[in-house]
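Follow-up to my post from last week.
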Amino acid sequence: MSQNVITKDEIVAWVLAYAQAISDNRVLLTELDVAIGDGDHGANMDRGFKAVAQKLQSGGTDISQILKTTGMALLSTVGGAGGPLYSTLFLQAAQACAGKSELSLQDWTGMIDNAARGVMARGKAAAGDKTMLDALLPALQALIEASHANLPLADALLKSAEAAEHGKQATIPLIAHKGRASYLGERSAGHIDPGAASTALLFLIAAKTLAQS
Amino acid sequence: MVSLVLVSHSRILAEAVLSLVRQVASPEVKIACAAGVGADRLEFGTDAIQISEAIASVHAHDGTLVLMDLGSAILSAEMALDFLPEDMRVEVRLCAAPLVEGAISAAIAAGLGTALDGVEAEAMESLRPKQEHLGSAVPVASRTDDGPVVGHDDHPSVTVIMPNANGLHARPAARFVQTAGQFDAEIFVQKTGAGNSAVSARSLNKLVTLGLTQGDAMTITATGSQAQQALEALSALVKNGFGESTSTLPDPIPATPKPTKIVDNSGYTHRITPIAEGIALGPLRRVNAARSGLLDATSVDSPEVEWLQVQNAIARVIAALRARHMRLSTTAQQQAGDIFNSHQLILQDAELLSSLRQAIYERKISAEQAWQSTIAAQAEVYRAMSDPYLRQREVDINDIGAQVLSELTGVTDNFTDTWTTPSILLSDDYTPSQVAELDPKVVLGLISRQGSSTSHASILARSLGMPMLAGARDVLDDVSNGTCIGLDGSSGLLWVDPSLEIARALTDQRLSWLAHREHMRLNSQTNTVTQDGRRVEIAANISGITDSRVAVANGAEAVGVLRTEFLYLTRSVAPTEEEQVTTLSQIAAAMQGRPVIVRTLDIGGDKPIPYMNLPIEANPFLGVRAIRLSLLNPSLFITQIRAILRAGHSYPCRILLPMITLVEELVQSHKLIEQAHSQLAAEGVAHAWPIPIGIMVETPAAALMTHEFAPMVDFFSVGTNDLTQYTLAAERSNPNLGHLSDALHPSILRLIDIVVSEAHALGKWVGVCGEVAADPVAIPVLVGLGVDELSMNVSAIPQAKAIVRRINSTGAITLAKAALRTDMACAVRDLVGSMSVVSGEQP
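User reply:
Got it. Predicted complex:
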């Protein structure tokens, strides 16, 4: 029987599992980025999350602080555009859950909402620009719907992971309007956006690690 | 002052941009880089934390402009702002300008004290010159509203000609903007010609978009309280080539650069090698036309007749040379006479005669052809030599060749023809005697097809005030005699049939150059002190009696270096003591009581001295040369010292030992000098004793050991040409290493600083005798370092005296201290430009 809350230890487990998943998918992410970007997304994210994993070795005092530590570590280690964007995602998330020791579905949804707003503002991108937002925004939408429907947290996380995965697949025909891929213009169509891929992975790992206890 | 932060994915890129910027911008602008991620930041990427720290490290209340490359750099820079305290954040601006162009424009504007808005605006405009140059379709704002139309009588203005080969590109433009920024004046610049609008001298980008190329005339207009000073400073800057050449004296790089040709609407303008400064405008006149192309090969029947003909021709030339030698020996031109003597030796060379005979008898060719091919082969041998001095022997060979050929063919050269219209002469090259015999009343200037600036002829041209260019190659071959030619001996510019506008500007420049020359000459006859009373002796580097007369005329206060190599070269036996005493006495007498510092023999294995049998060395400049050679040939050295001591009995002579590296060398030299003295004393020959003894500081080792040398010498003379070569490990004549030949590099200045402070601590004086001693940019720095004497080419003396007289020595000390802390030679040059320690009218 899963619980309807996300604990501090689960947040640490989520981030660490994501770090491991990035490491495992490093080659895949890089291949995606080679197709339409500068081929460093896998390596950059792996460098960043290895640094994060290092910082989170000793756990953390509270959820907000763990997320902030993650965001700050990413900032100076990722290097590519993923650095400021994922850093913003985690820092904005941290801000939204300040003072909370565990997160309900509503808390989690509000946190992802704040994170998505931050990423949109930082990258000045919108849905359909073939960016990480094309996975992040559908995941958020799924969470909002699940929240209204009062679904169990685990179900909601699963739905958001599926929505992110769909969003990721939906980036294939899109033409990039932001980032290095936008230089390719129409040639960027026909490939998955690597940022959407790493974001979909983030929600997949969330569904696998959160609300499990 | 606005600070800058450069953000890039690549640390190497950011650092390279920073060095580019440092070349043009004031060193006072604070600039930080934030670039790269990972170990040593060598991986591509940006880091918002690093950016925010970089901003905080340079930020002041005037604001900080952040320039970045692309992608994450933009996001990271934006993110970095979030980490800054609110009061700082509002003073930081992220700039959308392209990184390289934007950084350069912004840094220059910041260096001028422009506010943040203005710095950002300059950066945003920075692509314009490139876009306009490449003709990209971009809307260009009207520039007509920039300033007054030049030529209004109510604004003071000046018209100057762009001397730089690459036109008004970013570096000279930056210097222009910096200089303009020092004055309280609104300054506008216009490319001379109808329909051109004026642009503000405060905007680098707008200046560059004027598209001023070499030879273009530009009019500078100024209003405001310091308008006149600004115009003087700016026109001097332009005339000096924006300080792009390292010296007002031409570089002695023997490789003759290819003439470059620029076509503009005023006719053709070429840039060739500048040899002797000054402006000339007049009709072209070819001289020495006897030197024709190679004769066709025709077979001859009787080699005996040909051999006889050529021998007779040689005999006639030798007779003529003897006559000239006799005539010149009785006049002041002893040195020129010696050169004719060496010409005679060439004609009597057994090897030359044997290959000539072989050509006639074995190849059965005519006397003319045989002579031409033998001379050509001989000239080629010299041309292929690595040493610039020896390469110049080619001129002597060709000169001799032409004289014999004239005799053979009956076609005489017209060099000594008389003419009455003042003209600009064109010849393949000039021998010293040809120049010496020219009448300045009918010779306005000289152009040679070949030639390099270290030849004796060019020294004479400078002394006689004849502007001279060399290396014209074939650029004037299609120009007919009588065509109007303009030349600028400082910049190397050559105009063929210039427009009226250019001709007028050149005439103005010639008149002001002549007036300046006369003014300098009159002013140069008294001892030199700085504005605030510090004595700096201005001395001459000379190598013969001719130089010493010119030195006195130009106001030399002493001979800083009398090179004695001329006594030893181009002869078959060593000079006797008597001969040396006579020559040294003649030179010292010509100096009319001024001290004469005689440098002992300074040669090595790169110069052939038949009677010394020097081994060929792989690295002559690192081999047995100068004092090392003298110590290995003590009898030769003692003979020279005896001659100096004897001449010193009647004249104030001093001894200068070249290339002393070790203390032991000085100890050994002292022993030999004392030995010479004891011999003379024992023989009862009158001589000077004791005699002041100094050493050349040409190696870093000598500079660093000044403290150890000081008790054993009376003075030091820093030979900056060699000191630079040995410190920067770069041969001066290597055209690829020009950037390693600037004696203003801080490493050289630091060595000079050591020499001066340690010598002064023990009460010994220090002179500088390299080319840098005559460099107007270097003089304030050297004076600031405490140098007591500057010794230079005789023609540079009047200008150097004028500069020293305008130096404020306290300011110069501050300047020198700042120069010692820089990290590159161009930063030193920038400093001199930005700290005005030389006051008053421009030279």
